[in-house]
Fold these 4 entries.
Entry 1:
Amino acid sequence: MNNMICNNTCQSVLYEGKSKLICKGIDDDSLIIRYKDTLTAFNGEKKEVLSGKGKLNAAISNLLYDYLEKNGIETHIIRQIDETSTLVKKADIVMVEVIVRNIAAGSFSKKYGVAEGTPLKNTTVEFSVKSDKLGDPLINASQITAIGLAAKQELDEMVEKALLINTLVRALFKKAGITLVDFKLEFGRYKGRLILCDEISPDSCRLWAEDTGNKLDKDLFRQDLGDVLDGYRKVLFQLTMNN
Ligand code: TMP
Ligand code: ASP
């Protein structure tokens, strides 16, 4: 029944994002997210459809969110519907992305001149505005509260949760022989609580194989490094086999 609510010819799409469709849920408190096969980078400038990517990201993110729930982190997930669709709590998304870094890479390396792969002496947390139109610009805590994107208490809670999520997910990846370099989180307000929304997947993380150092995430696509889905498949396989 639920599969019928949100299929390819779905009439109930509320919003189409770059990598997900947001569809009407089963009641006023829920939504269905459907993972797409589309992969984009550089704020949508580079785009490709990789058949099967949606399924992989759904499986990886659901596995990680299930693990986080078991470890006391409330997420938006209610239940998986099918291979690409998940029923989630309808939260009011905080329009601030939280980026956590353990090792220098990406924009951090570029901006601060720190060689990619340099371990950071402490985990860093930074924020960007969730806005494709503005290109997700970096923003600091006082600017966030000044504009009213989030309250000080919410920001503090997001940072605390992000650091705990980092500790938990990093340990899980370590068991799977994968280094969690950095990742991006989104939170939402739901019935007075701040809950983890969106996804944690190779689209939103940097993940390096411990043995080879090979990249297994969206940098494969951003930097044209080879078979993108092969990297994503390895992430799912190693997480499944080692946990
Ligand atoms: P960055 O080094 O490009 O700032 O990216 C940091 C992390 O955030 C990396 O794991 C990829 C993730 N990320 C997203 O999930 N969405 C985005 O739009 C960007 C720019 C990065
Ligand atoms: N998420 C952004 C995009 O899809 C940027 C990126 O991941 O590089 O275009």
Entry 2:
Amino acid sequence: MTIRSILTEPNKILRQVSKPVESVKKEEQKLMDDMLETMYNANGIGLAAIQIGIPKRIIVMDISRNEEEKKPMYFVNPVIDNKDKENITYEEGCLSVPNYFAEVDRPKKCRVQYLDYNGEKKALVADGLLATCIQHEMDHLEGILFIDYLSKLKKTMIVKKLSKQKERPDRIIV
Ligand code: GNR
Ligand code: NI
């Protein structure tokens, strides 16, 4: 397994629409292994393949608490086929928008169909943080980031600050 680097905003690659996977083969499983290791290393609870520059419709997640046993989840070609009418607000963050957090409203529950790590068809009804996280990750597959839901002013400010951080990094990463 390899830790890959996570792309951060502003980066046009993050705006690409990811392509469906034909079938889950060794290559996709290796990618999921790398994504999971990259996500754990960055202390995230989810990661979409496009965040490491690969435009495939693949997501990994683990919303277990630190003290709990790890519970990795893998979603290939996920589709939401049912959304709750009721919304819930969560303070969201994103590994591609480092150090910024904001409240986002999303449907509280949703049903997702997907292929698992072994390419088997699965369905899941998600609620709470799991539902929020799946929807956040599925937005990445469409090139959407949570800051797109904020006011134009807030979003512009965040993107400006992130591009300045890229110009003058206070740490040189080799
Ligand atoms: O680590 C993450 N935490 C998080 C918190 C609230 C809502 C969504 C997320 S996903 C994020 C990791 C990430 O950027 N996934 O794309
Ligand atoms: Ni994200």
Entry 3:
Amino acid sequence: MEESKKTLYSAVQPTNSLTIGNYIGAIKNWVSLQNDYNCFYAIANMHAITVRQNPAELRKNTLSLLALYIACGVDPEKCTLYIQSHVPAHAELCWVLNTFTYVGEMERMTQFKDKSAKHADNINMGLMDYPVLMAADILLYGADVVPVGLDQRQHLEIARDIAQRFNNVYSPTFTVPEGVYMKHGAKINDLLDSTKKMSKSAENVNGSIFLSDDRDTVLRKFKRAVTDSGSEIKYDPDNKAGVSNLLTIYSVFAGKTIPEAEKQFAGVGYGEFKLAVGETVADKLAPLQAEQARLLADKAYLDGVLKSGAEKASYAARKTLSKVYKKIGFYQI
Ligand code: ATP
Ligand code: LTN
């Protein structure tokens, strides 16, 4: 761990299988940033239980997600990879930060409103407190930057507000984090409804490409993807949302810029274009899936990564928490 490097924090919830939206909006950037920052990448299982989970599935998804991080190129030698619940300081700081957060502002959070509508039978306190736990995650490690998809921007803003509020009441304690959003790809949309973000818990699985999808499934889903009534393959998110979404996906998976992709598909029909996007994505997913499976077969290795990750994370988190406890007047022995 080099002291001169800035700190980066991010996490994904171990719910369902990840989509290419999660990959493009989050994990892919983690890999490119890991050499320049002191990185903490967590598996947010405490966030996951804000929506009811099947215990066996949650356990399985947790290890799968770790294997996926590594298969995608996140290097456990360079980064701290750990499970959120292995570091109790997250829950402890969350409690303190709760007293710096207003009920009204939590009720106004878009994700809370969306998830409350979707899970009307279980609008629990954790769902409402989700952004405060996320603030605790970030602030515990003094993160300077947080790479996430655009859907998390509101949560990041609240984390900044909470940090500033605390710093103003006491003295500078928390680093105020910056969100890092990609120019293209921070919001990959549903293949069947370009107004919605692609989500791993979408009702219609045909709108999402899962990283675990096999080749035929990938090709079939792209074949059905919505385009528009025109015929030109041009990046124009306002007027050609479906085509622009496919161009973004293609450019990321093919390692090309959007103008390069536009040039390549000039004069090509939508059918052929969608097949090319599907094939490019499927070609990239196959080795990733194979590597994930290889890693999952080596549980001792994965457990070792988690153990050392939890130790490193706990050490950093404890330091912040003890500073906070001192400032707020908790008697320490
Ligand atoms: P869920 O549907 O279960 O709420 P999700 O697909 O939104 O899950 P998260 O675990 O909430 O996934 O998000 C993990 C990361 O992926 C976050 O950084 C989030 O911003 C990013 N992300 C999620 N969906 C997209 C998307 N469609 N486009 C770009 N980034 C995304
Ligand atoms: N809420 C995030 C996952 C998450 C996270 C974090 C992201 C939990 N804690 C801290 C960045 C920083 C999501 O993507 N749904």
Entry 4:
Amino acid sequence: MGGPPDGRYDALVIGGGIIGLVTAWRAALRGLRTALADPAPGGGAAWVAAGMLAAVTELHYGEQTLLGLNMASARRYPDFVAELEEASGQDVGHRACGTLAVAFDADDRAHLRELHTFQRGLGLESEWLTGRECRRLEPMLAPGVHGGLRVSGDNQVDPRRLTAALLTACERAGVAFHRARAERLLLDGDRATGIELAGGTRLTAERTVLAAGSLSGRLAGVPDDVLPPVRPVKGQVLRLSVPERYAPFLSRTVRAVVRGGPVYLVPRENGELVIGATSEELGWDTTVTAGGVYELLRDAHEVVPGITELPLVETCAGLRPGSPDNAPMLGPTALPGLLLATGHHRNGVLLTPITGDVMAEALTSGELPPEARPFTPRRFAAPAATPSPAQEQHP
Ligand code: GLY
């Protein structure tokens, strides 16, 4: 595909996963001439993800700043979905079903109790239930479930349908797709000016966004001091199918801590039941292993024994783009013309709406909106060299 008439885009996005797609869509809606480069747009980690919008139940200690961004994105989801479904003509499987997080044994219960105290201390909506109350909500839960947390605001979306809808919305908004791999960033002096694709085609742009998920740290030509510190974090996921005669098998997302290990079961309205996920630091490995499948089934079975009756229809593994503080890198880098939208780690699907909005703002105005400023990529820049105390003693 050729470029715009003057050969230069306003915005060029590297990566066609959900984060690249939402960035391109939102940029095009702002009137920017936008291109996206990816050999196979619509893939990436979202193809594997379960699609939990779990800002509260997936809260981690020390991640309160990230919680603010997660909650802000969760609040935008209903309007975002309505706009995307209108723009694409496609249903994205958004389900306001809430989440139940349950404990398997006394230690897991103590862990969840702590989490509940932490959540309440932050003013989050989370209700403690006894084991019996949990089973009343979800009769398929094991008799041994020791209580849990009901979080009505943690919903779900189908990431595969979300991605497909974003692709269509991009096409309809006039995003130019270049179905080739970005080989390297092009520089003119100290400014990023575009990319060279595999095969040698060059695309130039006023602003280039690196949104290549776990691959974002590998683009040639990016100076070391702005290369994002992203690493792949492997997640294995299973997909089961609930036959009509068992429906509704589960009515809401069920998360559990089983002997200290997390597992989740995400039931879709179309009968799919997603079970996830491992979290493995194994580099670029996406092998589905017997051990991974065994652990997921073992833990899910402890909480919902009836899963053994269900057909297992798919196993897959993807790579979360992990960052040093588990939060995304959004907006301008120290290299003029280069922006980042990567490092979303466990929260890519949840953070899709707000990422699209803040990146469109950064592409248009050059500035990040206030809610995204803590997530500037510059927080990982090496500190400027300062004289050591010993040096300071000399005149
Ligand atoms: N947010 C779910 C996961 O990363 O497995």
